[in-house]
User: Fold these one by one.
Assistant:
Number 1:
Amino acid sequence: SQKIEQNSEALNIQEGKTATLTCNYTNYSPAYLQWYRQDPGRGPVFLLLIRENEKEKRKERLKVTFDTTLKQSLFHITASQPADSATYLCALDVGNFNKFYFGSGTKLNVKP
Amino acid sequence: EAGVAQSPRYKIIEKRQSVAFWCNPISGHATLYWYQQILGQGPKLLIQFQNNGVVDDSQLPKDRFSAERLKGVDSTLKIQPAKLEDSAVYLCASSSGVTASSYNEQFFGPGTRLTVL
């Protein structure tokens, strides 16, 4: 069956450290992948997009990698801050006119 | 630029009752999505519109859920009759993409939290 897996356990890190979140998928061949941030009681907010022919994408303290062989994307937040605490979702383009499937999200807790 | 608007923000109903949600996407956005997000899970796509036509509704429980997007702008999602398992947040999103390779981000509304008792 088709799956998009994100670590369901919360990730707890200390302020200033690098947070690394994982998105694994099976049985898809996405043309691109997106990462979103979701705060409690709010809708997801777009962060980054990476295409299948891109290995790495950066935006300020954020970095995303995309390994189509491993079927995995990694999302990094460097110099993490308590304000980065949120749930992070990956979304895969499933190849039908901008149709997306989301992972279940990983909650990040950055402690001061 | 105004964001995606949704109403109501909260709704509590009894099972077997009907409920409707409204979404106003960002002006000019061709694609509109409705997602269901159950607590602790990621958003699940229910239906996707391109202008006023349905692109995908493969995960929409059509025996009880219906959606429309008249004139390619606002959209409504209806549940009739509601079940206990429909308790969730219903998110509306829009994007400007008009082609399959637009690589467009989605802009989400705040969602409607539905509780079915």
Number 2:
Amino acid sequence: KNEVEQSPQNLTAQEGEFITINCSYSVGISALHWLQQHPGGGIVSLFMLSSGKKKHGRLIATINIQEKHSSLHITASHPRDSAVYICAVSYNYQLIWGAGTKLIIKP
Amino acid sequence: DAGVIQSPRHEVTEMGQEVTLRCKPISGHDYLFWYRQTMMRGLELLIYFNNNVPIDDSGMPEDRFSAKMPNASFSTLKIQPSEPRDSAVYFCASSLATGPAGELFFGEGSRLTVL
């Protein structure tokens, strides 16, 4: 069993829809990262959080430490949000990566 | 700051050749990470440095791979001899610290194709 599980693996939605991507982990962590990778490859850190909730523009990330679960939400989704979203957890000074969620937003 | 800078962006080489990938971390960051990304295996940590010292190289796949960080502003990842299965995108990332303060900043990656 992977230590970091993301769902769904693939998600296609219409422009404007509210998007939720989930991440569950099985180890005790010091922080959780959400990253975005666009076609063409560059990786950008979106959030790093260890408790509660963070918001940046249309993106919201939440984490529940007790349930070992985090969600990434995108409000008013847009085709430019199409990318792979990756969850990674900091554990014992290592980063454990989820497999990523491929998101496609259709106009 | 210009961010993490990697070179080359693309490299195509023949099996058996030596490949050297380069990385300049963000100034002041004391952690540097080398990752490899393939379709089959996703993102894998190869090695990371703290204050120019290699801390964990357990992800380095074979003796053909080596990494150095001669100073705080430069690191190299070398593959010698290269093989087709080394074809991947290699990312360098830096951070101020691992753990809760350790937000990662990635370079744009070096796409390696070994024929």
